[in-house]
Each structure stands twice: as structure tokens, then as C-alpha cells.
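Suppose you are handed a protein chain with no further information: no name, no annotation, nothing but its sequence. What can you learn? This example shows the usual starting point.
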Amino acid sequence: MKDGYALNPLRGVQVDQALAFIRVFGPEFSAERWQAIVGRGYTTMVVSDGAGYIRGLTFSSVRMHPIAQKLLDVPILIVGSVTDEKAIAELLFLEIKRRAIVQRCDSLRIWTWSSDALDRLDDLSYCDRWDHGVMHFLKPALVQSLDD
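A reasonable first move is to predict its three-dimensional structure. Written in C-alpha cells, the prediction is:
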């Protein structure tokens, strides 16, 4: 626990709470779509406060990208705090970076938020594009090859 927050994988009892949290940012997310995504094996991490309320959420998966090579792809990273967003975002980002390193990824990408992000998870032509999100390179050789 850091700064009064706990970072843990999403537990079954938190699935409905996580949907309510996401709906603050994307009210159109259906319960059916969320259940399908939760059941697909994405790594979903939540930051909870001392009272157990979700204050941050991310889900990610490892995939191959035509430019970024082995990529930890992060379609959703949400921070929901008006007083401590920096600490929550830092916890989530450090966990994402740790996972990418452990999985021996070349890069990680945090998608730009959009209301249709969950609908684009299976769209390989969209996932392979380079023009959405923030790319963070973990291996200097990859960055150098992009400059050539």
C-alpha cells in the first residue's frame, strides 16, 4: 500500500464497481460488453482507497505490433480522484511499466481515451495503427531504428 492506496488485480467482487467507475467516463458501456471484456483475459489492475473504493483502473494485454514489436497495449487507464490523481496515475503507470519489462516487451502504449475504445479491441487494423495513444519505448534500439 502506497499513500493509502492498494494496487491489486481486479477481483470478482469488484467487477460491478469497476463498471460503475468506468461509466463515469463512458456512460455508454454496457454491462454485457464489460462482462465479456473481463472474461477475455486482459490483465485488469485497480487502485483502491482505504475504504475499498476504486480510484484508478487499467487493463492491458501483450501483443505484436508491426512497428513497436512486442507491445504491452493499454486501451484503458482511468484515474478518478480530484485530490490525488498524481499518486494514483503513478501507481498505475509504474505497474504497467513493470509488467512490460517482466513480459520483455519492446514498448508500451496507452491509448487515447475514446468512448469507443472497448469496441476497438478486436479491430486489428486499428490496433496496428500508430496514430492513437502515447507510445513509451523500453528499448533504445527501437527508438533509434525509428529515427533511421
